[in-house]
């Protein structure tokens, strides 16, 4: 594996990785730490080992953007198998029961998909990284503990069936989903199957987008090993957040953690100085724009 030559740390920025199957998000972070030659590497939102596609990685100061980027809308392509439940709600777990699904018609599938579109309450998969009293849910499953996860509000803004394949007593659906942060596609597969009375699980998943960052910007680990580079932090912030340009005096204030007059924006806003330098993320609160994170100084 190639590493950057020893010397100054890499520039602040994002790396959009096309994650391969079989690696955890933490595995990818470890690879990028070696390639980039720095420990300051993190990711915005995990992908299961089975899943492929867009994983947003922050390097150096850009790691402080990740918590805000993780809250953005995401896009997925996947395959749902109707007629089988698994312990993990995906193809990595053992099949727990099978129910013939050949009788389920296209109209019933469309109605089931519609019921899971829009603002919904979703119970996450138990084999997930959600913490319960400081312990990961999947760790509790492995320990044989009995517990329940609470439903949480998520938004599925689009849930589309692209193709339907009927083989014996199972049905495979190729789907495209656009959803809010915190939505589990495995849980959509499980709940679609449950609603149709035949069970269901996810057999393939590819994340196509995180906020403004899609597969068109993504690079494989092999490509990054050959030629490492980042999306500069200013470009990354400008693509993901509304832009606010400030005067020299305001730039000086916000660079030291000072507040700005509030504007009409909602959510995090990227603040840029007169020379185009990305200074901070701010958010309106109580009549002023308060810094969420400062990236200079």
Automatic annotation (TrEMBL):
Gene3D superfamilies: Pseudouridine synthase (3.30.2350.10), PUA domain (2.30.130.10). The gene is truB. SUPFAM superfamilies: Pseudouridine synthase, PUA domain-like. Residues 33-185 form the Pseudouridine synthase II N-terminal domain. This is tRNA pseudouridine synthase B. PANTHER family: PSEUDOURIDYLATE SYNTHASE TRUB1 (PTHR13767:SF2), TRNA-PSEUDOURIDINE SYNTHASE (PTHR13767). One of its GO terms (molecular function) is tRNA pseudouridine(55) synthase activity. The keyword Nucleotide-binding does not apply. CDD domains: PseudoU_synth_EcTruB. It catalyses: uridine(55) in tRNA = pseudouridine(55) in tRNA. One of its GO terms (biological process) is tRNA pseudouridine synthesis. Responsible for synthesis of pseudouridine from uracil-55 in the psi GC loop of transfer RNAs. Keywords: Isomerase, tRNA processing. Residues 241-295 form the tRNA pseudouridine synthase II TruB subfamily 2 C-terminal domain. Its EC number is 5.4.99.25. The active site is at residue 48. Belongs to the pseudouridine synthase TruB family. Type 1 subfamily. Residues 186-227 form the tRNA pseudouridylate synthase B C-terminal domain.
């Amino acid at each position: 594996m190639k590493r950057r030559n020893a010397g100054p740390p890499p520039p602040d920025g994002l790396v959009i990785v096309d994650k391969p199957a079989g690696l955890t998000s933490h595995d990818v972070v470890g690879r990028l730490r070696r390639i980039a030659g720095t420990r300051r590497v993190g990711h915005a939102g995990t992908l299961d080992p089975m899943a492929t596609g867009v994983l947003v990685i922050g390097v150096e100061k850009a790691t402080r953007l990740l918590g805000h980027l993780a809250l953005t809308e995401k896009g997925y392509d996947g395959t749902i198998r109707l007629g089988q439940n698994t312990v993990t709600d995906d193809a990595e777990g053992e099949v727990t029961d099978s129910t013939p699904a050949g009788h389920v018609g296209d109209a019933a599938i469309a109605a089931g998909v519609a019921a899971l579109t829009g603002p919904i309450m979703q119970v996450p998969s138990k084999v997930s990284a959600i913490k319960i009293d400081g312990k990961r849910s999947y760790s509790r499953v492995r320990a044989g503990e009995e517990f329940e996860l609470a439903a949480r509000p998520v938004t599925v803004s689009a849930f589309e069936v692209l193709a339907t394949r009927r083989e014996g007593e199972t049905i495979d659906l190729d789907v495209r989903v656009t959803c809010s942060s915190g939505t589990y596609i495995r849980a959509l597969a499980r709940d679609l199957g449950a609603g149709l009375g035949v069970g269901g699980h996810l057999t393939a998943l590819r994340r196509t987008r995180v906020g403004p960052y899609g597969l068109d910007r993504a690079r494989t680990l092999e490509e990054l090993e050959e030629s490492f580079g980042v999306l500069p932090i200013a470009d990354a912030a400008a693509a993901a957040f509304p832009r606010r340009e400030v005067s020299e005096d305001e730039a000086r204030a916000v660079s030291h953690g000072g507040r700005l007059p509030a504007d009409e924006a909602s959510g995090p806003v990227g603040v840029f100085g007169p020379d185009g330098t990305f200074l901070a993320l701010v958010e309106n609160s109580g009549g002023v724009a308060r810094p969420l994170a400062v990236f200079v100084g």
